[in-house]
Structures are given as C-alpha cells and as structure tokens.
Amino acid sequence: MADCEDQKFSLMEVLDTFKLCVSEQKEVYLQNYVEGWRGLVKFLNSLGSVFGFISKDVVNKIQILVNYLNGENGSQYITIQSMVKYELDNELVDMTKRGRQPESGSRTLLRLHRALRWLELFLERLRTSTEDSKTSVLCSEAYNESLAKHHPWVVRKAAGMAFCVLPGRPAFFEVMNVGPPDQVVAVLGEAVPLISEVYTITEELYTQHNLLDLP
Ligand code: 1PZ
C-alpha cells in the first residue's frame, strides 16, 4: 500500500524538487535534478505501458548519474558545474565520438537536458491550451521543436506513435494530481519558469564548454 502511494505522481512534488535544484550561485544540484526526473518517470509510468520504452531510457540515465553521485568521486558530482569541470579536467568525456567514456555524466545529462527543453515547451503549450486542445498535437509540436532534432528516424517514429495514444487534456490534468483545471494551469504557470531556469543555466554551461554535441 505504502509503495503504491510512493508511486503516485504529483506535479507539486516535481515542482518542489526543481525548486531545490538551483543554488544561490546559480549552480544546479545533481541530486535534485535526478529527483526531479524520478518524479517525471512516475508521471510517464502512470500514463501507461506504451511509454515504457521512454521511461526505461530515462531510468537508465538516472541510474548512471546516481552511480556517479554514490561513487568514490561523488563529491565531484554535487553540482552539474562541478561534474562538468571534474570530467573535463580528468579527460572523462568523449568529445567527438563515443570511445572510452561512452557513459560520462556530462553526455548522459545532456540527453536529459535536451528532454527538459521538450518538457518546458510542452508544459507551456499545455498551460495556454484550451479545453479542446489535443495533447498529442501539443506534445508533437514541442517534440519537433526540440528533441526530435537529436533523434534518428526510428526513434522519432516510435515517439510519434506514443504521442497518438496520449490521454486527452482532461485525463492528462487528472494524472497531474493537483486539483481542478484552473489550479493545474496555475501550477504550470509556476513550474514552467522553474524548469526554464534550470534549462537555461545548464544550456549556458554546456555552450561555454562546447559540450552541446557530445556523442
Ligand atoms: C508525456 C508524453 C511523453 C512524451 C515524451 C517525449 C519524448 C519522446 C522521446 C522518445 C525517446 C525515447 C527512446 C530513447 C532514446 C535515446 O536514444 C535518447 C538518446 O540517448 P542515447 O541513445 O544517446 O543514450 N534518449 C533521449 O533522448 C532521452 C529522452 C528522454 C525523454 C523524456 C521524456 C520525459 C517525460 C516526462 C513526462 C512529463
């Protein structure tokens, strides 16, 4: 029973974790970032097994980062900034093609970072949508503007099929578990800027170090 409760998604929870992500010095705490993603995985899972191939990939990436956090060099992984510095200083990142470091923290996080942009665009569309808007359309528009550019044809195809079976807007709002639609819209209004801030900080860091195309 307790386990079931644990699995229950609430958008508020995700919001809270993303709030805790950013330090006063505008650094991003990896632990909270990963927690935020765990919440999103719960959400995906509550949408049905069709999304399993997506959540599996996210879980896999979360695990890679958690292993670094809990590993012997965990103290280097406190923030995304310290992780990038440590991995670059110690040549732990494959810069042009995958080789000896296929699962660096930096390249793994980059995949989640790109997906965060999709999330930001999608949630903003959802926030400003009307009752008759189709989540599948909102979702694929956001996807085409962001993540799709980084995915090969076969993944884009699979994603497109998954979008088609997304629940409609009312059911979607229900799964978010924050109350009536106007409250969902209000919470989204709070969530989008937070996600956007985390995204922007990370994007600047990766741009500064020329890491946006890590293989
Ligand atoms: C609410 C509906 C969910 C729609 C999710 C939209 C994104 C669809 C992406 C589908 C791709 C999943 C398959 C895995 C692809 C991986 O190849 C890539 C690259 O990783 P690499 O192969 O280089 O290690 N993985 C990703 O791009 C990460 C994708 C994460 C998608 C996160 C969705 C978040 C859902 C949040 C729910 C609100």
Automatic annotation (TrEMBL):
GO CC list: cytosol; endosome membrane; Golgi apparatus; nuclear outer membrane; plasma membrane
Catalytic activity field: N-(9Z-octadecenoyl)-sphing-4-enine-1-phosphate(in) = N-(9Z-octadecenoyl)-sphing-4-enine-1-phosphate(out); N-(hexadecanoyl)-sphing-4-enine-1-phosphate(in) = N-(hexadecanoyl)-sphing-4-enine-1-phosphate(out)
Protein's cellular compartments: Cell membrane; Cytoplasm, Cytosol; Endosome membrane; Golgi apparatus, trans-Golgi network membrane
Keyword Repeat: no
Transmembrane annotation, as ranges: none
Keywords for the protein's UniProt record, in alphabetical order: Cell membrane, Cytoplasm, Endosome, Golgi apparatus, Lipid transport, Lipid-binding, Membrane, Nucleus, Transport
InterPro entries (alphabetical): GLTP_sf, Glycolipid_transfer_prot_dom
Annotated ranges, domain Glycolipid transfer protein: 29-177
Membrane topology: Peripheral membrane protein
Record keyword Membrane present: yes
A GO biological process held by the record: negative regulation of interleukin-1 beta production
Molecular function as annotated in GO: ceramide 1-phosphate binding; ceramide 1-phosphate transfer activity
Record family assignment: Belongs to the GLTP family.
Protein name: Ceramide-1-phosphate transfer protein
